[in-house]
Amino acid sequence: MITCFIRYDIDLFKKAEFERYGKVWNSVIPRLGVDLVGYYAPHEGSATTGYAVYNLENLAAYEAYRARLAADPEALDNVAFARAERIFTREERIFLRKV
What we know:
Elements: E1 2-10, H1 15-31, E2 35-40, E3 49-56, H2 59-70, H3 73-85, E4 88-96
Antiparallel strand pairs: 1-3, 1-4, 2-3
């Protein structure tokens, strides 16, 4: 099992848009067969950092998920929304394993 952590640098004035973006993934990602832990928006402290966390069997499962994601209309719409609104300035993805 591997866990993907995504760190987002959110535009200071786009917190509501990031929350909308994350809520869409809350239904899309599990529907595409991935164990989504959740999307996390700023609450206290940094007003510009958000996270997403999900689990997969391995990197091959991640590649298969990415292929399903690229063909999903709702996922494509959400990516287009994020780009059009310029919600975040950086997205950093890291894969870790529990020890």
